[in-house]
Amino acid sequence: MINLKTAKALGLAVSPSLFVRAPREIFESLGLTEVALMAVAKGPERDAGRETLFLPDREAIKLEPRDPVLYFIQRLRDEAHRFLIGSHRRLRKKDIREAGLQEIPGIGPSRKPALLHHFGTLKEIERASIADLGKVPGVSAESARRIFEFFHPQGT
User: Fold this and answer.
1) How do the domains of the chain map onto residue ranges?
2) Could you tell me the pLDDT band of residue 113, with boundaries at 50, 70 and 90?
3) Helix 68-102 to helix 111-119 angle, to the nearest 10 degrees?
4) CATH code, residues 100-151
5) Can you give the pTM of this predicted structure?
């Protein structure tokens, strides 16, 4: 998704109301028509307290900098950002942890979590012996050998 700042930097003629219209169209396509949507744009120089609110089919709203409603909306926005950033970090961490396992033939969605649960980290899986790998539930002797050989190719 592109934000208003990026759109402006790219020289795109985009109005902030687009950030309400586009999600509304997606919600409507899913049959969700009773969901209230609002976009919040930070003020010039990204000044807190100078936000503009955009609602579908309405004029932009500017609240006074010390308006309690504005404080509430800022807290909602900040919490949404905190939640999304945390979720993104968890996904990235999971992707990074599983990245080395993705390339091993025969290691699929059930063995990856079992290996990570048993050893804790990709580094510990790499250090494990064939015998240790074979102790993981769901990992056969043949799979243990393939995992070991992936991390320890012969001749290196």
Assistant:
1) 1-68, 100-151
2) confident
3) 100
4) 1.10.150.20
5) 0.51
